Amino acid sequence: MVSQLYTTQSLADQVVPTQCLSCDLTGNLWLCLTCGFANCGRKQFGGIGGNGHALDHFTETGHMLGVKLGTITPEGAGGELSHALSSSLS
Fold this sequence. Notes:
Elements: E1 29-32, E2 38-40, H1 53-61, E3 65-68, E4 81-83, H2 84-89
Antiparallel strand pairs: 1-2, 1-3, 3-4
C-alpha cells in the first residue's frame, strides 16, 4: 500500500543537499523522493565520479524513487528519474 506523507513546510523553504550523505562527493547526486536523503550515483564512463551510495540507500531502505539533482527545472521540465524497475534493468 502506498501512503502520502504530508508536511506543513513548503518545498521552497527546504535546503537542497549539496553533498552525498555517505561521502564527500558533491556531484552526481541523487535525491531520494521518499525521505529527502541525497547520495552519490554510480561511477560512470567519462570521469563522472560516484561511489554508488544512492543504490546502497535503496538496498538498505527499499525507497524506490529518486531524481538526479540538477536535472529538473523550476518549471518541472526534464528530470532523470530512477526507480526499482529501471535500476534492476541496468
